[in-house]
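User: I'm curious whether this sequence folds into something compact or stays loose and floppy. Could you predict its structure so I can see for myself?
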Amino acid sequence: MSDAAPTRADRRELINRRRHQILVHSILYYRLDSTLVPDATFDAWGRELVALQRKDPEAAEAVPYQLDAFRHYTGNTGFDLPLDDPEATEVAQRLLTEPRQGQPDQVPEVQARETVAPPT
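Assistant: Here's the prediction. I'll summarize afterward.
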């Protein structure tokens, strides 16, 4: 594994992944009355997303996925996110019905195409 600092492309990819994860897991919690990850994990994703978007606002603005919804995201709650998003709702429902594979932070088919190693 490389110790090189993440590139802007890496940060955009991680911002995209975290937005997807936060929205899908917010739908699971608020609309489908279920959880698949511990609160601490969800909170860590939120803090990480907020930090990434603050550190590199240009990268954050370059990620189109739910940009308006996450532009002023504080990481405190996912209640005011677009919980009616059809794609994210479909993924949330699939996560509840299909056997889980991989790590709990993976969101199938919504996750960025190339993954970035999680922060250590």
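Summary: The chain is about 50% helix and 0% strand. Residues 8-96 form one domain.
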